[in-house]
Amino acid sequence: MTGVTLTLPEVMQRAVAAYQHGRLREADELARAILSVKADYFDALHLIAVISAQQRRFDEALASYDRAVALRPDHAEALCNRGATLHELKRFDEALASYDRALALRSNYAEALCNRGATLHELKRFDDALASYDRALALRPDCAGAALFNRGNALRQLKRFDEALANYDRALALQPDHVEALYNRGNALHELQRFDEALASYDRALARRPNYAGALFNRGNALRQLKRFDEALASYDRALAARPDYVDALNNRGNTLHELQRFDEALASYDRALALQPDHAEALYNRGDILHERGDLHDALAHYRRALSLKPDLADVYNNLGNVLKELGQLQEAENAYCEALRLDPNSTAAYVNLAASKTFKPGDAHFAAMEALAAKTEGLSTTDRMRLDFALGKAYADLNDHSASFQHLLAGNAAKRASIGYDETAALGRFDRIAAVFTPELIAAKSGGGHPSVLPIFVLGMPRSGTTLVEQIIASHPAVHGAGELQLLGDVVRTVRGPDGNSAPYPELMLSLDRAALHQIGARYVAMVGELAAKHGAPGAECITNKMPSNYYFAGLIHLALPNAKIIHTMRDPLDTCMSCFSKLFTAEQNYAYDLGELGRYYRGYERLMAHWRRVLPVGRILEVRYEDVVADLERQARRLIAYCGLPWDDRCLSFHKSDRPVRTASATQVRQPIYTSAIGRWRAYEAHIAPLLNALGIAAVAATSSR
To answer: CB–CB of 117/150 below 8 Å?
Structure first.
């Protein structure tokens, strides 16, 4: 300070003026010059601390605040600013203590109360945070914008989403361009499942800050909920352009690609996430979901277990783990996994559905009581949650022989599911008629004699819940057979076929333009695909490979022409037992005709007409028909008949089908792990008083079913 005649207070005044005009470097140098003369000059220490904190040099700031507070323990502002610095250093308990010391000196210190609320929020003491914000608002209404915003954040953490929304709206009325308030308002709306409004709030935030990665990410989440998957994907991609290391965006991008059935791209997105963060549990279990869907059950299991080792409280992963274990035949382990999912999340309706399918309820069952209590709630349950509960309770009440209550829950669950899907009954029934119109005896005769000669394929088809899984399990217990489960491969092959003009007509009209060479190509492509699949799953030398996609009854005529040596097995069961079994299930794959009794009955009649058509136009004996009731009545006779039809030597293991360790991936996965039982025969009679729409829709089929008993 050579040549300067100013006093220390005058230098301090210059330092403060420089700070107020934004000349931080000059202010800092002047304050440090004062300290070189007088090391215990409080105002200089305090200003240096403020400047250091503003420049995010928090450790230096804290050291200066500590020296200042040691000189003036009663300086409320220094204690408040010290608390803010400790907050930035994530030393939240110490920050809270510093605010409390400031407030003990000045109880009406609104800024300290506001900051204290933010620290209490970080400590997850949300009710205390609200109280602190409320005291600040009462003292200083002019700080309402920040306090209301923070108050909304605390309410959102307390899951008081309506109140949170009201606070964000009040904050935005004061400051319409508050980007964070718009963003968090969108988050509250998302929690309230008001996804269109959430989307609008994110868009308002992005209009002010176009590269706001968090808003782009949550915008993608809202679009996913609205099933606008392509737009969601674009939003995640924008988030990643703004922040390439945004692991959660990569994860949810993978989920969206999964929804779009772009599985390889989804896996690549998860892999990018895991390359950035190998311990990202959600990406691991989502990757496991795709592996599960592809039938790579052991790999899926490994992913789920790895995810749980990282994050043991993931209820959804335990639920999915249970599904894989069930398909692998580890039924007790599966039930344990569902129970663990419910221990972690007693409101997991997906786990209740799976648990209900895997056990028999008895009086006094704790899970039954928990389901009833959850269903009794008047709010807090989404439509999907209530629908799942209705299906689970429908099963539970049936186990407890209260079929009236069972039916009421099934009716409600099916109605909710039906309201959530699109089903064009006219088109569905018309498809049966179109197939019959195309596959005339003349077309069959004209196009026969080609096709691929392989004896590898076995098709097990019929209505869902008619015994297709049981029949496949019997056949696949033979050592020469690989049971591939429900494969969409035939439909996939058909969709790739082009006519002579290079265009792809829809099935069945496509058949009119196909020659024998094209039919041979369809057969060859199918054989190659199932062969690759069997090899992938450890059965490269299988002599036969089953495909038990029930709806392959659409393709029976095509199978005959494209694969003339393939075996076609049609399973049948009492129409009313079949339909009521369908009505009691919340299918994972869409069976959109199954959720209304009238529609279900009319669809069944359409399926019956098509099967009658195949009997008329295909050679006698081309399709082996097997009645579920006959298999139950005389397992060995029917099993021998099946194996003989498949051209295989008899093997006694086919009678012990329930002991097979092959994966079973259908709604009957639990049942086929048991020996033959008769209790499913005539099960519809327990609901007879409630199913008039089904009886009317089935007509003669219902009368025949009733009169045969």
So the answer is: yes
